[in-house]
């Protein structure tokens, strides 16, 4: 992007004095043109440097405000950070007020160096860097204040403290803090921190695909922190010890009821946050018990029913009501819920219809042919008797396909994955792939299904065509191309389609104002989760934006609850400045995989204990056993507390000031 000035990641681009049409590009950083929808933004300052977008900036005021944010973010455990950032803030204020001198600039430079090299975490280590950049590259701006006469503009400076791991987490969980609390043996504090972002610590700690760990700076040293499994430890500790469970001081302090349709993670998190605000959320569930995909789709060996039940019980204690055996669109509708006085309706019905493979024979009702989500539900939720199949082909290679193939490996079948690309393009979590191999699953790569072969109404094989990889498609992966004349039949008595899911939207017809996109999701404002054109209806989770992960659905729930609160209070539904900052920081990228992190190597990640291998292969017992207290504290101690602060300069006369 074109900028007036940038020192981002040490790459200096300086277009000052040049006409905008001849500004050179700044490849190191991408920023939005505006702060939120339409507020003009002129600069960004943060852990990677300073970026000035246009002439409406004041670098000295920006540096002062940034020093103030660092001081406010300091946990005060290190003397150089606690005291140094305060001295920095005061000195910059003195300069801004026209009382500074050249010796103040020298002192600031010295302070930047000593705070950076003597502090323990990102706030102290990385925070002074951009202030030093302003001193190095904007001397004349400082001199204008020192020589007197310059008046500060009082722009608005929203800021956000985050960390690379936190920024990658869709719930915005304060990961460094909950890990530090585990390290300090403050497990209740750790759970409280986790619950500020999501109440589903067990589900997430067991089955999240942890984007945070792919953005962990410790990976630049040797191996990322076991962020996910530490969360599970905190929950397991609480669940297995006599501890005081947190109460909800606002429980049912408001009269308004909100109807939430679906009891998966999006619905539960929406309800939890509404309950904390004092509302009376009621979750309607079509099945006999709550839990969504954790109940029906994620196998027992990954999320045991017992741990899910404990999460639901906790939510009930906080003030969430569950009403089961209610099918929305039949037993209740938009109209009946409105007539009963519900102030808002949240659609959180997931995506529980298996996509067809568009393969001849799949609509014939053959015995031995299943949709992935359907068969997982039969096994876990219905506890149904499944015929003993000799050879099971699971078509697809995403995480639902992994759940299917690993399930049938446990049921004693020869379990295969049929995938039209190669190992390199596998879309599933690498850990799931490794586990499936360990459990004996075999892979047939470069195969695409063409026809279900059946005899007497029973599956006997899959006609498949061999593929080869061609040019990359829109997803960047090489497109599989059929090899002419390569059709062949793979013998099998069971075929599972696990190539994706669709939302079940039969109830949408009751509210004609809801528009659907081409994937049958309601058209929503993705910032606020409000359904466009129907102000009292919100959507969250897979039904809102298509099949995604548990943690994305959890993030939706938090945002939906905030929007519903604003809606009920009659306010404009909007993102807070902090949330806008969070989005900007995500866009910039808080994690730099090329960063040379100076910490010494060699503190290896604690391996997660797993159950006895025979049990693992022959039963649905939980595979991962969780850390012991000693292991968890040892693992937590590896965290480098990589907090960073990002701040924008927003042109606004109404806010800012001191
Ligand atoms: S631990 Fe980090 S925030 Fe706390 S005082 Fe040290 S450098 Fe500052
Ligand atoms: S080391 Fe800790 S704070 Fe740093 S990115 Fe990893 S988990 Fe987050």
TrEMBL record:
Gene3D superfamilies: Alpha-helical ferredoxin, FAD/NAD(P)-binding domain, NADH-ubiquinone oxidoreductase 51kDa subunit, iron-sulphur binding domain. One of its GO terms (molecular function) is oxidoreductase activity. Residues 60-105 form the NADH-ubiquinone oxidoreductase 51kDa subunit iron-sulphur binding domain. InterPro entries: DPD_II, FAD/NAD-bd_sf, FAD/NAD-binding_dom, Helical_ferredxn, Nuop51_4Fe4S-bd, Nuop51_4Fe4S-bd_sf. Pfam families: Fer4_20, NADH_4Fe-4S, Pyr_redox_2. SMART domains: NADH_4Fe-4S. This is NADH-dependent reduced ferredoxin:NADP+ oxidoreductase subunit B. It comes from hydrothermal vent metagenome. The lineage of its organism: unclassified sequences, metagenomes, ecological metagenomes.
């Amino acid at each position: 992007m074109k900028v007036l000035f940038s020192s981002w990641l040490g790459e200096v681009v300086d277009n000052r004095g040049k006409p905008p049409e001849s500004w050179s590009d700044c490849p190191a950083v991408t920023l939005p043109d505006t702060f939120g929808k339409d507020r003009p933004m002129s600069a960004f300052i943060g852990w990677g440097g300073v970026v000035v977008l246009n002439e409406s900036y004041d670098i000295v005021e920006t540096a002062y405000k940034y020093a103030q944010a660092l001081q406010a973010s300091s946990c005060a455990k290190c003397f150089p950070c606690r005291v140094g950032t305060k001295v920095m803030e005061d000195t910059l204020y003195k300069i801004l007020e026209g009382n500074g001198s050249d010796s103040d600039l020298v002192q600031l430079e010295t302070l930047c160096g000593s705070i950076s090299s003597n502090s323990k975490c990102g706030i102290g280590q990385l925070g002074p860097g951009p202030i030093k950049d302003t001193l190095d590259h904007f001397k004349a701006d400082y001199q204008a204040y020192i020589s007197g006469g310059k008046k500060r503009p009082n722009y608005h400076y929203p800021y956000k403290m985050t960390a690379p791991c936190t920024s990658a987490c869709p719930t915005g969980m304060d990961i460094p803090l909950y890990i530090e609390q585990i390290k300090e043996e403050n497990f209740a504090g750790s759970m409280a921190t986790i619950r500020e972002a999501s109440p589903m610590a067990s589900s997430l700690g067991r089955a999240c695909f942890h984007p945070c760990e792919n953005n962990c700076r410790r990976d630049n040293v040797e191996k990322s922190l076991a962020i996910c499994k530490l969360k599970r430890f905190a929950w397991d500790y609480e669940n297995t010890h006599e501890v005081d469970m947190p109460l909800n001081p606002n429980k049912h302090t408001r009269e308004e009821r909100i109807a939430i349709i679906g009891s998966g993670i999006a619905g539960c998190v929406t309800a939890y946050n509404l309950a904390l605000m004092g509302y009376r959320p009621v979750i309607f569930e079509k099945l006999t018990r709550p839990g969504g995909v954790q109940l029906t789709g994620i196998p027992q060996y990954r999320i045991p029913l017992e741990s899910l039940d404990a999460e639901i019980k906790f939510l009930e204690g906080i003030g969430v009501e569950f009403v089961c055996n209610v099918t929305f669109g039949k037993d209740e509708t938009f109209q009946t819920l409105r007539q009963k006085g519900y102030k808002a309706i949240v659609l959180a019905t997931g995506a529980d219809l298996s996509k067809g493979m568009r393969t001849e024979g799949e609509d014939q009702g053959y015995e031995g042919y299943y949709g992935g989500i359907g068969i997982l539900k039969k096994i876990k939720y219905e506890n149904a008797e499944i015929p003993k199949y000799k050879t099971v082909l699971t078509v697809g290679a995403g995480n639902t396909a992994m759940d299917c193939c690993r399930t049938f490996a446990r049921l004693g079948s020869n379990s295969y994955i049929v995938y039209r690309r190669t190992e390199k393009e596998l879309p599933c979590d690498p850990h799931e792939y490794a586990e499936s191999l360990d459990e004996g699953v075999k892979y047939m790569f470069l195969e695409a299904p063409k026809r279900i072969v059946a005899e007497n109404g029973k599956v006997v094989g899959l006609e498949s065509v061999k593929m080869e990889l061609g040019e990359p498609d829109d997803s960047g992966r090489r497109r599989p191309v059929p090899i002419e004349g390569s059709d062949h039949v793979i013998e099998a008595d069971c075929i599972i389609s696990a190539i994706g899911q669709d939302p079940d939207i039969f109830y949408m017809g009751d509210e004609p104002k809801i528009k659907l996109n081409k994937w049958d999701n309601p058209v929503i404002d993705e910032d606020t989760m409000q359904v466009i054109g129907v102000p009292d209806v919100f959507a969250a989770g897979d039904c809102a934006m298509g099949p995604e992960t548990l943690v994305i659905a959890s993030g939706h729930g938090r945002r939906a609850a905030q929007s519903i609160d604003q809606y009920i209070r009659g306010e404009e539904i909007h993102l807070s400045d902090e949330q806008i900052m969070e989005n900007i920081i995500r866009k910039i990228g808080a994690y730099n995989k090329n960063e040379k992190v100076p910490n010494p190597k060699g503190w290896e990640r604690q391996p997660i204990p797993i159950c006895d291998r025979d049990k693992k292969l022959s039963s649905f017992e939980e595979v991962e056993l969780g850390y012991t207290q000693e292991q968890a504290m040892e693992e937590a101690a590896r965290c480098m507390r990589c907090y960073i602060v990002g701040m924008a300069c927003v042109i606004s006369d109404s806010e800012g000031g001191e």
